[in-house]
C-alpha cells in the first residue's frame, strides 16, 4: 500500500471503469504513504508486472513445456516496442474514444506486429523480414 498504481491500473483497465465506479472510489494518497519516488513506482510497462496471478505462470518464471526462453524474450521485446511506439497514441485514443490512426496501423505493420499476431504460416514470408522483434520467422510458433 502507499504506492502509486496509476500505470498498473491503466495497463489493465479502460478509463470507463473509473467512471462506472467513481462514486465508490477513493481518489488521493493514503495517509502516511511514502512520497512518490523512483523506488516506489513501476519502472517500465515493458517489464513483467510481478503481481501474483496477473501474468500466466510461464511469464513469472515457472517451467512449462510450451513457453521457451525465446517466447519470453519475444514478449519483452514486443512490450518494449509498444511502450516506446504505441503507448502515447493508444492512451489518448482510449480517453477520447477515437480509433487508432492509419499511420499507427502502418507502423505496426512495418514492425511485423500485425503479421505476427496471426501466428505462424506462409504469410510471414510476405513481410520481407527475417525476424519479428528479434525472433526468427522460421522459429515463429504459437
Distance between the termini: 37 Å
The proportion of residues forming helix, as a percent range, comes to: 25-40%
Q: Give me the Rg, rounded.
A: 18 Å
* Coarse structural class: mainly alpha
The SSE string, one letter per element, is HHHHHHEE
Strand content: under 5%
Unreliably modeled segments = none
Mean of residue pLDDT values:
79
- Give the biggest sheet: 2 strands, antiparallel
- Number of H/I helices: 6
Q: How many β-strand runs?
A: 2
Strand adjacency order, main sheet: 1-2
Shape, per Cα inertia axes: globular
Can you summarize this structure?
The protein has helices spanning 6-12, 15-20, 69-85, 87-96, 102-111, 113-118, and strands spanning 131-132, 135-136.
Could you describe the 3D structure shown?
The chain is mainly alpha-helical. It is 39% helix and 3% strand. A hairpin with a 2-residue loop joins β1 and β2. The N and C termini lie far apart (37 Å). The mean pLDDT is 79.
List the main descriptive attributes of the protein structure presented here.
mainly alpha, two-stranded antiparallel sheet, 6 helices, globular
Set out the fold topology.
Blueprint: H1 6-12, H2 15-20, H3 69-85, H4 87-96, H5 102-111, H6 113-118, E1 131-132, E2 135-136
Antiparallel strand pairs: 1-2
Amino acid at each position: 500500500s502507499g504506492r502509486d498504481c496509476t500505470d498498473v491500473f491503466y495497463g489493465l483497465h479502460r478509463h470507463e471503469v473509473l467512471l462506472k465506479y467513481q462514486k465508490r472510489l477513493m481518489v488521493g494518497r493514503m495517509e502516511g504513504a511514502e512520497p512518490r519516488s523512483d523506488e516506489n513506482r513501476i519502472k517500465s510497462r515493458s517489464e513483467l508486472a510481478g503481481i501474483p496471478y496477473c501474468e500466466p505462470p510461464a511469464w513469472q518464471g515457472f517451467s512449462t513445456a510450451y513457453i521457451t526462453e525465446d517466447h519470453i524474450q519475444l514478449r519483452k521485446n514486443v512490450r518494449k516496442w509498444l511502450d516506446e511506439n504505441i503507448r502515447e497514441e493508444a492512451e489518448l485514443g482510449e480517453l477520447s474514444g477515437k480509433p487508432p490512426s492509419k499511420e499507427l496501423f502502418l507502423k505496426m505493420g512495418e514492425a511485423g506486429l500485425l503479421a505476427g499476431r496471426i501466428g505462424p504460416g506462409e504469410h510471414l514470408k510476405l513481410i520481407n523480414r527475417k525476424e519479428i522483434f528479434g525472433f526468427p520467422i522460421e522459429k515463429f510458433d504459437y
